[in-house]
Design brief:
By secondary structure, this protein is α/β, with parallel strands linked by helices. The protein has two domains: 66 residues, Hypothetical PUA domain-like, domain 1 (Ribosomal Protein L25, Chain P, Beta Barrel), CATH 2.40.240; 165 residues, SPOUT methyltransferase, trefoil knot domain (Alpha/beta knot, 3-Layer(aba) Sandwich). Strands 6, 7, 8, 9, 10, 11 and 12 form a seven-stranded parallel β-sheet that branches. Helix 1 packs antiparallel against helix 2, helix 4 crosses helix 5 and helix 4 runs parallel beside helix 9. It is elongated, with a radius of gyration of 22 Å. It binds S-adenosyl-L-homocysteine. The site of S-adenosyl-L-homocysteine has 17 residues, from helix 9.
Amino acid sequence: MLDGRNLRLRKHSRQASAVALRVVRLADLFLGCGIHTISGPADSRVLHDMTARYFVDHEIGRSHVSLEGPEAHHLAHVMRAKVGDEVTLFDGTGAEFLARIQHVGRSQARLEVLVRRPIDRELAFQLTLGVALPRGDRQRWLVEKATELGVGELVPLLTARTTTRPEGGARARLERTVIEASKQCGRKRLMRIGAPCELASYLRNTPPDALRVIAHPLQAVAERAARPGDLLRAPSVYVTVGPEGGFTDGEIELAIGHGWQLVDLGPRVLRVETAVLALGSVIVLGRCLFE
Ligand code: SAH
């Protein structure tokens, strides 16, 4: 597996060799997993564009479905789909459906469901994210990335220094962001957005047998961090990230008291959404690449 360049590296030190080996293995993994070839004859009626997936807001169980609202708009006006085109539908329950367009109106489309394909693009473990959400675009960006990473549920946390509380229209907009992100990344189950939850109640009510980590700079407290090996093995992981103003000392003491482990993300202070993406990536991709 080692090529000439890596063999030269090996002469320098055992440590360099280990690094080279890891690089080769990662490269192999990327080559093995990342490039897919579509076989079979090209069919112009099938929209191969990765964005040509449409969300149906009820369980698809019948032979025909209607698309309305933003999904019908996307189909008719953005993708300019025509009668006879075949597209992919999903209803958030874990499968996708090949469907043929029978009618396209200004704000509604009707499709015949041709085939159901069970597709599982979910994580092999349960990942829950509790986070004190930032505002505006950064909030939407965070929700988009959490969806792409495979988070099962996002719980907006109310902490001493939280200023956001997504309810009503704000929550509906976040749910729309989840749908858009799922269409883009091919996920067939929607990440749930929980009701806003007080931090104390969240810390207390999460299952103690799950791995529960709370991101907090460790120089602030003399407490042991979660071990990376645990993050890569636990069947159920709860990750908690604080607000822009950080957690209070009292909140961290409460978390420790309920058995949560602290996780340090390095010497720089990360924005909330960066902390979510960094920690989420370590857990999700760490398991994908090194298991
Ligand atoms: N203003 C705060 C930082 C808040 S950053 C301060 O100066 O302490 C927002 C959240 O991201 C934090 O509550 C924490 O959960 C997470 N975070 C950011 N940087 C981190 C780091 N280096 N280590 C661990 N957690 C971090």
